[in-house]
Amino acid sequence: MIEAINCAALCATLKPIQAHLDDIVVPFAHAEVMQAQLLAVVPQQALDFLVLAWHHDHFVYQCQAKQKQYHRTERDYWLAGAEGLLEAEFAGLKTWVFAHLDTLVRASSLVEMVNSLIRPYLKSCKGQITQEALNLIMFYHNHRRYKSGKRQGKAPIELLTGEAMQAEWVEL
After folding, report:
1. Are 34 and 104 in contact, with CB atoms under 8 Å apart?
2. For labeling, which of 3, 52, 133, 144 is most exposed (least CB within 10 Å)?
3. From residue 82, how far is each of 20, 102, 115, 124 by CA, in Å?
4. Contact residues for 76 (Cβ-Cβ < 8 A; gap 6+)
């Protein structure tokens, strides 16, 4: 539909997007495969409840204190519904479904996180950033320890490799 506008600027913008369209939709294919795997074990309605509970559980960690209570209440509401449907199997299936959903890579959140990390540096140097500066930002991001949340005290590189860092990022 955008091509129908026949605007040169839009067509130039669309070409790289169209060239990578298959790469862009990969997360949807992964989600479809995961849904099929989960539905093979958990009934549809119970799975819907568990997915909504998982979704709100993630917001509990991400939100400010004001909204945490709302997301806790929603999470507990959907978990109660799933527990009513699954009865004795609830605890095991909840753990299994949450573990599977935790493996999903939410690409846009990764991109936004990197953009938010780099944005202040780009503003301070008026968009003229060197490769060395980008490498330093990358090193900092991969080696700094999280200060809060469920990954508190761990650095991304530690989570990736499973090995503890020997020193703080500044010393490294």
Report:
1. yes
2. 3
3. 39, 18, 37, 49
4. 53
Between 159 and 52, whose confidence is greater? 52
CA separation for the pair 80, 21 (Å, rounded): 40
Sign of CA dihedral 64, 69, 72, 78: negative
Query: How many Cβ atoms sit within 10 Å of the Cβ of residue 112?
Result: 11
Taking a C-beta distance cutoff of 8 angstroms, is the pair 71, 56 a contact? yes
**Among residues 61, 39, 52, which one has the least CA distance to residue 82?**
52
151: number of Cβ within 10 Å: 14
- How confident is the model over 145-171, as a mean pLDDT? 84
| pLDDT(45) > 90 | yes
- Summary mean pLDDT of the chain: 82
Residue entry with tokens 């599977």: 100
C-alpha 135/C-alpha 130 separation (Å) is 9
Range ranked top by mean pLDDT from 133-137, 143-147, 148-152: 143-147
- Contact predicate 93/42, CB 8 Å: yes
pLDDT of 83 reads 94
